[in-house]
Design a protein that fits this description.
Distance between the termini: 55 Å
Number of strands: 7
CATH superfamily of the domain at 51-166: PAS domain
Strand content: 25-35%
Low-confidence stretches: 1-37
Mean pLDDT: 75
CATH architecture of the domain at 51-166: 2-Layer Sandwich
Radius of gyration: 16 Å
Helix content: 25-40%
Structural class: alpha+beta
């Protein structure tokens, strides 16, 4: 079965018409090599959202224990404040020592997405910088997931301001 990697990515993102032209067909079995061939960065460079391709890591019981970042686009670097060299090829546990104690259970959410070919959309606020993000994740193949981040801090700040004014 052939599917368009970017079409699937961008339909989920809601930019179907604009980016569909950039898509390239891949055999579904070869999708895992896309991020390793620099195509991921090339295809996602025009997207304003931060994008990262990741591989979930599980224990013998298939419980998620970590994930490795395979590739990212430039917008992802800006969103998280770390460079490609600091992220790509590294496990989450190497990048963030407190990922297991975070208020949001990223690991289990991404593990579910990667292992069950599901999709999810959620919002979160970073502890340190207090930046808000809209995040979506989906799996192009078992064990792999794509994260898409959009900084929505200004929108959230407006919401908070409106709620305070309403009181």
């Amino acid at each position: 079965m052939k599917i368009s990697f970017m079409e699937r990515l961008l339909i989920y993102d809601g930019h179907t018409m604009h980016m569909r032209q950039m898509g390239t067909d891949f055999n579904a079995g070869n999708l895992s090599i896309v991020p390793q061939t620099n195509n991921f960065r090339q295809y996602t460079s025009a997207i304003s959202y931060g994008c990262a391709a990741c591989r979930i890591m599980t224990d013998d019981n298939k419980t998620p224990i970590d994930y490795e970042i395979i590739d990212i686009n430039t917008a992802f670097e800006s969103a998280v404040g770390l460079s490609q060299n600091e992220l790509v090829g590294h496990k989450l546990s190497e990048i963030s020592s407190d990922f297991k104690t975070a208020r949001f259970d990223f690991l289990n959410v991404f593990g579910h997405v990667a292992n069950y070919d599901s999709r999810t959309l959620f919002y979160f606020c970073t502890e340190g910088s207090r930046r808000w993000f809209s995040a979506s994740a989906f799996s192009p193949e078992k064990g792999i997931f794509i994260i898409m981040l959009e900084d929505i801090t200004s929108i959230k700040q407006q919401e908070i301001k409106q709620k305070k004014n309403a009181l």
